[in-house]
């Protein structure tokens, strides 16, 4: 499958918006990878919009609301340039701990009320539960968002990290624009059980973790506040094994005279026009490098060669820790 029309907008499913082929993930601007510079974050957001990026992805629990307030400040004079994708449901304590999940209809509406205020907007373009709440039928959660669509507060409904059955049940209540799922050269599970269902139902993909949280770019946890220090792929012998795989990617990238980051993003772009990679840049230099992936052309034979050189079976460690993996509906 060769890449083509890389700068053309991509449609997020049959019922979602058209967006720039790359989206900007803003989580890293609110502490998940350690301290960040607010001025640089806002400058990066502005640069992304100036380069044509339209979709900004956030969560109301990123930095306990900090991320939404940051984006709100950045969009103060340019709201018309951005489409906002917001995840909700995760509960945080004042010590930044994770204390549960809530996707009840009343909670959905409460979360959105605060999100609109923090962002300083009158609607959200794509609103999605960040995970499946095992205590609440997905029909009730999606039904509540559908009420918000009717009221004009939400434009489209998305999902995140859910399995095929949940996708079908949700889509039967209200059309789903896209599934947000981790997808990269070293995380290819969605290809088997999820992508065929999405194709059948006309649902798009916003792919996060396209660099496996920096693993494919050679990045490693740099500070105590970096949550990657607790992820299996960045721990001990797993990291050593994975760095050997990254070395293979670096070699292939060098042959094409591009960076490993650009090659990894280009691979995701090449896997289908229905997929929009979410790049996690929090600095302008990272943004510029990621945008360079749009100029990387990959033939069908090159795609196969890259995939053969980095088989997922040789990746050491799961993408999340064991407790989180057990709670992911997408992994069932």
UniProtKB/TrEMBL annotation:
Pfam families documented for this protein: Aldo_ket_red
SUPFAM superfamilies linked: NAD(P)-linked oxidoreductase
Entry-linked Gene3D superfamilies: NADP-dependent oxidoreductase domain (3.20.20.100)
Keywords: Oxidoreductase
Matching InterPro entries: Aldo-Keto_reductase (IPR050791), NAD(P)_OxRdtase_dom_sf (IPR036812), NADP_OxRdtase_dom (IPR023210)
Superkingdom: Bacteria
NADP-dependent oxidoreductase domain mapped to chain residues: 21-309
PANTHER family linked to this entry: AFLATOXIN B1 ALDEHYDE REDUCTASE, ALDO-KETO REDUCTASE YAKC [NADP(+)]
Protein name per Swiss-Prot or TrEMBL: Aldo/keto reductase
UniProt source species: Stigmatella ashevillensis
Lineage of origin: Bacteria, Pseudomonadati, Myxococcota, Myxococcia, Myxococcales
């Amino acid at each position: 499958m060769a890449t083509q029309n890389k700068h053309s907008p991509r449609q997020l499913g049959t019922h979602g918006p058209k967006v720039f082929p790359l989206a900007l993930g803003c989580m890293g601007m609110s502490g998940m990878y350690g301290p960040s510079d607010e001025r640089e974050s806002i400058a990066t957001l502005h640069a992304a919009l100036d380069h044509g990026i339209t979709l900004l992805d956030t969560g109301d629990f990123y930095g306990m609301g900090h991320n939404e307030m940051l984006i709100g400040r950045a969009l103060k004079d340019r709201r018309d340039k951005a489409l906002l994708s917001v995840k909700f449901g995760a509960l945080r304590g004042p010590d930044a701990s994770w204390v549960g999940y809530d996707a009840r209809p009343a909670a959905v509406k409460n979360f959105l009320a605060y999100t609109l205020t923090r962002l300083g907007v009158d609607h959200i373009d794509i609103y999605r539960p960040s995970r499946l709440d095992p205590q609440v039928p997905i029909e009730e959660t999606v039904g509540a968002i559908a009420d918000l669509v009717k009221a004009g507060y939400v434009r489209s409904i998305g999902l995140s990290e859910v399995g095929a059955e949940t996708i079908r049940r949700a889509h039967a209540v209200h059309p789903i624009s896209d599934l947000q799922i981790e997808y990269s050269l070293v995380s290819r599970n969605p290809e088997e059980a999820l992508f065929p269902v999405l194709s059948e139902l006309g649902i798009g993909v916003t792919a996060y973790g396209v660099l496996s949280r920096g693993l494919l770019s050679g990045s490693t946890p740099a500070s105590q506040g970096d949550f990657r220090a607790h992820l299996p792929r960045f721990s001990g012998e797993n990291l050593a094994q994975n760095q050997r795989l990254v070395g293979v990617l670096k070699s292939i990238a060098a042959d094409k005279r591009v960076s490993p980051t650009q090659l990894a993003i280009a691979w995701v772009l090449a896997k289908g026009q229905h997929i929009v990679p979410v790049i996690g840049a929090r600095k302008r230099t990272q943004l510029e490098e990621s945008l360079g992936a749009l100029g990387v052309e990959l033939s069908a034979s090159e795609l196969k060669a890259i995939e053969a050189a980095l088989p997922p079976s040789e990746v050491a460690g799961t993408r999340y820790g064991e407790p989180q993996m057990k709670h992911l509906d997408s992994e069932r």
